[in-house]
Specification:
This protein has 336 residues and is of the alpha+beta class. It is built from nine helices and nine strands. The chain has a four-stranded antiparallel sheet, with helices on one face. β7 and β8 form a beta hairpin. The longest helix is centred in the N-terminal third of the chain and has 27 residues.
Length: 336
């Protein structure tokens, strides 16, 4: 019964999103040829193809989205596009001049909509080359360099990714951990969270270490066009430690590729003396946050269960104070 209710709710949400997309397009004056549904995540996305103006990404945002944060995201992207050597998805204003609209007004209760210009490229393959791993680091360093020069306008607002947001992720995980963790395993997660809190408390934000970051920088949000790598989907951009972004990239890389990625980043930006330990702290933080995000979806549980022997191996090394970024860690169980 729960599955049927969830399916019905998802279908209703998609239907509402389609209605919002259709109602929004006239506001942008786009003579579209094709509307392609892309996916359902934090927002519901559509590709809008036109003959005259190219392609666009239309996002129908969830009920928790805040107009001020969406406006600020597009302001940041506009500024980055003027500085970076690679394209980012900049916003398209409606005919009214607004970059965030609510089709039909608040009375129709349709979701907020934004449109960005489409960045051409293909998603990275699951198997990266060593050269691509190094380029990921360079790209991330250049992104942070550009973000550090951005002067936020009055009213600029965005999320903060730190202990506050991590605490909320742990609360969410507490509600759902029983689907893929034993009580002993959950204890490891709690111990790691406490250690993360202790380590972050020792960090002092500075312009060199803290600023505007992508917030969700993983291979699924990076595309390539045969010449360069480019980040997309800035929906979680906010304030945080730059190494938080870099650590998110490292999760999907081999030990050797992590080293190359970090070296690529260091070729652009100076790393702190204890960068490896900080990266390992953020590595665990991002990993736990990812599990928190997916734990409430029953379809994700089998995959989360399969990953736990590897996740627990990282947790064990982290709790022991053993460096793990550049070593292959054998999968373990808590009893090992």
């Amino acid at each position: 019964m729960n599955t049927m209710n969830e399916d019905n709710q998802r279908s209703a949400t998609l239907n509402k999103a389609r209605a919002a997309a259709a109602a929004a397009l006239p506001h942008y004056g786009l003579e579209w040829d094709k509307i392609i549904y892309l996916g359902y995540s934090d927002s519901i996305t559509f590709k809008i193809e036109t003959a005259a103006a190219g392609s666009f990404l239309l996002r129908v945002h969830n009920a928790q989205a805040r107009a001020g944060e969406l406006v600020s995201e597009l302001q940041l992207l506009d500024a980055l596009s003027l500085t970076l050597q690679f394209p980012v998805p900049t916003g398209l204003a409606a005919v009214s001049g607004e970059t965030v609209i609510q089709p039909g007004g608040a009375e129709l209760q349709l979701p907020l909509v934004t449109v960005t210009r489409w960045v051409e490229g293909e998603l990275l393959s699951d198997t990266l080359t060593d050269a691509q791993a190094a380029e990921l680091g360079v790209m991330t360093g250049e992104l942070h360099q550009a973000a550090a020069t951005f002067d936020p306008p009055a009213g600029f607002t965005c999320p903060v990714w730190g202990m506050g947001s991590f605490g909320l992720e742990m609360e969410r995980l507490k509600e759902h951990y029983s689907g893929f963790l034993t009580e002993t395993e959950w204890g490891w997660y709690q111990d790691a969270a406490a250690q993360i809190g202790d380590e972050l408390a020792t960090l002092a934000p500075s312009p060199d270490s803290y600023g505007l970051i992508h917030g969700d920088l993983h291979p699924g949000n990076i595309i390539e066009d045969g010449r360069r790598l480019m980040p997309i989907d800035f929906g979680r951009c906010g304030y945080g430690y730059y190494l938080y972004d870099l650590a998110a990239l490292l999760l999907g890389l081999s030990p050797r590729q992590r080293e190359l990625c970090i070296e690529g980043y260091a070729s652009v930006r100076t790393l702190p003396v204890n960068a490896v330990r900080q990266l390992e702290c953020f590595f665990i933080m991002v990993m736990i946050g990812n599990y928190s995000h997916h734990a409430g979806n029953p379809e994700e549980i089998p995959g989360l269960q399969e990953e736990q022997p590897y996740a627990l191996a990282f947790l064990r090394e982290y709790l022991r104070g053993e460096s793990f970024l550049f070593r292959r860690i054998a999968p373990v169980s808590p009893e090992a």
